[in-house]
Amino acid sequence: MDIKIETLRTKWKELKSSSRFHNAVVFLVFVAVSALFWLILALNDSAQENFNVKVQIMNVPDTVTFISDNIPEKIHVNVRDKGTNLWRSGLLRQPAMQVDFREYAAQGVLRFSKEDIMAAMKATFGATAQISSISLDSMHLDYTTNKGKRVPVVVNAKIFPSSGSILEGNIVSVPTSVYVYGDKSITTDIHSVTTDLVEMRDISETTSVDVSIEKINNVRIIPSTVKVTIPIEPLVRKQSMVTITPVNVPQGESLLLFPSKVPVEYYVAMSRLSDDDDASIEIHANYQDINKSTNDRLRVNVVSYPERFCNLSLKSDSVEYTIVKE
After folding, report:
1. Which residues contact 222 (CB under 8 A, 6 or more apart)?
2. pLDDT per residue over 103-120, tens digit each?
3. Do residues 76 and 135 lie in contact, with contact meaning Cβ atoms separated by under 8 Å?
4. Which of 19, 140, 267, 302 would bridge 310 by S-S if both were Cys, CB 3.0 to 4.6 A apart?
5. For residue 182, which phi and psi values (nearest 5 degrees)?
6. d(Cα 196, Cα 182) in Å, to the nearest integer?
């Protein structure tokens, strides 16, 4: 290893002492000097460049909330000037247009005219700069010093789960409430806000999406978007033994049913499989249906059950009966 390093050092010394190496170094120095002179001459020529100018609103009190949602973050400006000036004022730093709130805001409106923008651009790029075009004509921003009113979020949704799935539970938003800012004559009548429509089809698992709040004229909503969660679960089959309730039995008689319970089959969300659902299903045997019966069996009917049950069916739609006189 030491022999290889010593060999490399010897070759490097031989190369440095050669006339070819000296000529190459001199050539590179002349190229670098020429490039530097060319750059200086080029930068002294007039040039035109596009800039993204950052908009900064300064000295805004903590009590102020802008209602306008069109506050620009940047504006596009086309500038003509000497290359050295453009390099110094725009390319070496991020150009910014500063708007002093205290100077341009009054009675709920911040006004920054076209003349104000041009003056700000001259201050940013220098007096010799020629502003060819600006993407912003003027600024007219409404604001309020009123406190925000907290209101709940109502989720507007149309959800169609895929086959074998069910919407289990409520569709919720995070946060569940937002703040509305504006004139009290407007915010007093606002008691809730609504999201844009969330429409989903054939979804088979719990899904979360970011949704915007519907805009209200002359009102600022913070935050303007919420995360909406749609709880979807797979369906599982379940069976229960439900007691039959006799109805419309005349006074002085009793209706005995055999069996007194019937098996019911239905589908529920997986998380509900262990729930005791027997009491939530109501099945009747109507005494008045005896006259309609052609045999010794009485028809039974499902009267009510929770909406979260799917495809509920009876294993047997009739039972034997006996009338007992009291």
Report:
1. 65, 148, 178, 179, 181
2. 999 999 999 999 998 888
3. yes
4. 267
5. 165, -170
6. 21
